[in-house]
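Side project, low priority. Logging it here so it doesn't get lost.
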Amino acid sequence: METRLVNLETKLSFQEETISQLNEVVITQQRTIDELSYKIEKLSKTINTLRDSGVIDISLETPPPHY
C-alpha cells in the first residue's frame, strides 16, 4: 500500500510540473497572439489611411496615351 501511495505521489508531482510547463507555453503563445493582433490592426489602419490618401486605384486609372 505504501509503495502505491508513493507511486501516485510521484506521478502527481510529474503531472503538476507538466501542467506548469504547459501553462508557460500557453502564456507565451497568448502574448504572441496579442502582439500579432496589434500589428495586424495597425497595418490595417495604415492601409486604410493610404487608400484614403487620394491615390487612385490602379484599376480606375486610364492608360497612358501611348497605349
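Brief comment: Residues 17 and 23 are 10 Å apart (CA to CA).
Revisit when time allows.
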